[in-house]
Design goal:
- With 102 residues, the chain is mainly beta.
- The protein has a domain of 60 residues.
- The chain is built from 1 helix and 3 strands; from the N terminus they run βββα.
- The protein has a 3-stranded antiparallel sheet, with helices on one face.
- The longest helix is centred in the last third of the chain and has 9 residues.
- The chain is elongated and about 55 Å long.
Length: 102
């Protein structure tokens, strides 16, 4: 057994399972408007979103929250069975009324 190679971990009679990657939707990358600056001086200035994958006994589910960078609170979100832009786009259709500063 080779401790430096992940495919060799386990019993010697087990086959290594190849890792399969899903490329997702092919589309042009959006402009980097935030430039990794996730701070905000007031509510409703920046609402980024992302898609996260979770494995549950029934399969995979995808969570797409939209977060207010001012205080880290979720302002919207969606859950789906497929990772797609549609999952994130659903956040935009359910946007709440803008919040005021505390």
């Amino acid at each position: 057994m080779n401790d430096h190679h992940p495919a060799a971990v386990g019993r010697s009679n087990e086959q290594a399972t190849p890792i399969r990657f899903h490329l997702g939707e092919i589309s042009p990358a959006p402009d980097n408007l935030l430039n990794r600056d996730f701070s905000a001086g007031a509510p409703n200035e920046k609402w980024p979103t992302d898609i996260s994958e979770f494995r549950i006994p029934a399969g995979k589910v995808y969570l797409s929250p939209m977060i207010d960078c001012f205080d880290g609170m979720a302002v919207s979100g969606s859950i789906g069975m497929r990772s797609s832009a549609e999952c994130a786009d659903q956040d935009l259709t359910r946007l709440p009324q803008p919040r005021s500063a505390p």
